[in-house]
Amino acid sequence: MHQVGVVCGFAAGAGLGAAEAPTKLVTAGLSPFLISLGMVAGVFVGRWTVPALLKGTGFVFADLRRRPHLAVWAIIAGALWAVANTLTVFAIRDVGLSIAFPLWNTNSLVGVLWGYLFFRELRGAGTRTWTKVAGGALIIVAGAILLGYASSSGATSFSPRPAAGVAAALGAALLWGTMYIPYRKAYLSGMNPLSFVTVFTVGEVSTVLILALTFESGWHPLVAALADARPWLFWLFLGGFCWVIGDLFQQYAAKYIGIGRGIPLSNTNQLWGLAWGALVFGELSGADPTVRILVLAGSAAMILGTIAIASASAPSGEQAARSRAVARECDRYGLDPDQVEAALAGEDCPERERRGRWLDLLVAAVAVGTFVWLGASARRPAIEMNLAAMAVLSAATLAVLIAAGYALWKRTRFA
Fold it and tell me: Can you give the pTM of this predicted structure?
């Protein structure tokens, strides 16, 4: 299952990287809270549509009934995600996509810490594995320092508030790193990622709606702002939907290789973010050569760190510690240990059936109808873009997602 987790981690990087591109609309004058609300609306549609098509709503509801205690954890995780996602919009506005991305990807350090403290990850791993993980963590920190220095130097033409942008990106990193605690708790209990994200989105939508209503001065101003922004909502919906695809792969990576390894792998999205920011939006076109070198060196260092962490496969001692963590969850909530171990090996319970196909088709029809309705009034954003680079990156992202999806389906049938 380590190979499955690695493939899912890299696919998550491609999907999550592409999903951030629509947040560049903040440079066109849209409110960060409005952008976050638009993306979360797309996320909400995606988090119900994809599970319904892949497994069926009957499967999802049956999975939730078996583990009702995880519903509150999923809602908390969604709330943390929503606040972090809003902070990323501020970060992109203030320091640009190519710099903000690697900064908030320090969430991998937070994930490693929580994985060790709460879920026995790296317990009994041995000196070699610990060296890879600790060394990778230090390299990630060094890369983040380089990028923070580059953004705060004032040498870039797109950093009007570098300190605020860095703070927003690091705040998102802390929240996203903490969000993975409910992830791992769910999968050590044998829950399917497709079921978990369905409840997860309730926390997302509720939190972002509260933020938007608070900072946009109430319901009526928010509705008016949404009406004015309707030509751009299609792109935000599309970004949210793409985020769902990337996040689902991230969920499977967290399930099969843990948050201490799966999250650093998914943080290869910083390469995709750098490519979108630099090649499509020309964020580094006006930067000093020294700043460009710092950005590239910082990104390269962080990628090397994630590779070192991801290559540290779990030895037998760590696998035994994971089994103890599973036993703890089973004892606490009265779960069947055999079913949980089967789920962690990529197998679903045999008694689960796909029912309510009419509801699955209804969910898909609503999703398609929403995109058609928004697409009918969509306009091209007034942002400078390299369309050729956009086409190449979009095609590469799609190819990675399709290949990884096929590999996951072939091995686990999306278990």
Answer: 0.83
